[in-house]
Amino acid sequence: MLTARFLPCIVLYMSKITAEAATSLLAIFAGQTVTHDDVLAQITFEYQMASKRTGFSSYFKVTDAIEAAGVTSRYTGPNYTGDKLYTFPAN
Predict the structure, then answer these.
(1) Which of 36, 54, 75, 88 could potentially form a cystine with 47 if both were Cys, beta carbons 3.0 to 4.6 Å apart?
(2) What's 15-87's CATH class?
(3) Distance between CA atoms of 16 and 40, rounded to whole angstroms?
């Protein structure tokens, strides 16, 4: 499970649901390249399974956590255009 110690510059405190959602995403998408929409849908699902509501910042917190854990993101077009893709490291 991720903890706040992995993110000293980004997040001072990571809630339990944020850490659990990030850990789940890393396991579910391990070794895959997926779209931003796929990641957001999975974050929403993780929060729903925990009976929590997703606020606007929930998505940023989880995506920051997975990027700090080694996930890379890129756009398919120039100058932040096209689809945003996340590449997850293999376990």
Answers:
(1) 54
(2) mainly alpha
(3) 18
